[in-house]
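To: structure desk
From: M.T.
Subject: fold request, one chain
Message: Could you run this one when you get a chance? Sequence is below, nothing fancy, just the single chain.
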Amino acid sequence: MVELLSTDNIIFSIGGQGVSLLEILSVASGLTCVYLATRAKVANFWVGYLYNILLFMLFYQKGLYSSMLVQPVSFVINFFGHYRWTHPKKGEENSRNQLKVTLMGNSQRTYFVVQVFVLAALWGIVLTRLDNMFPSVFGEAQRPFLDAFVTITILTAQYLSAQKKLECWAAWFTVNVTNITLYILAGMAFLPMVSAGYLVLAFFGFTMWRREYLKND
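Reply: Done. Structure tokens follow.
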């Protein structure tokens, strides 16, 4: 199974770059997860668990260690969001007895933006030293600061999604635009195209969540 899911196991090529079975499975689960999230379906969390596992394997093989190491944390946030959506507090529930969509205040938005840049800078420094600290485990990190920025933004977007904050889609927009650059620099041809698809889904997600927010409001 490990050999089957190796990124060396090429299924087809795009632009001279091979696409592995692991990439295809990651994309399929990712698109399904995001689509279900745009529809505010709780099932997105179940698909999200599989997505985390597949991405962990993919990023390890590609040397994107920040994105790899974040997957266990992402898994925990996914579990937290699963609980929050299905166990809203009194006054937080929508007509389906699930967590309703809400907005943050300006001070909260500023806090999260500053937090992303500060944590990304610190995490980027750590990534540049991983190969020296654990030479038998990690090779040289690819695009460490860009990778770190994507990582922290993903965690922020996922946390805001878990709280059903409408602003989560702004974070997902940022993630997808940055990911297109990161994946191209890492030598991936398929995932940048998929990230463009995620951008489209994020637009629809924002539209549908905004509609639900206005209805609840």
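Reply (cont.): Residues 76 and 114 are 23 Å apart (CA to CA). Let me know if you need anything else for the meeting.
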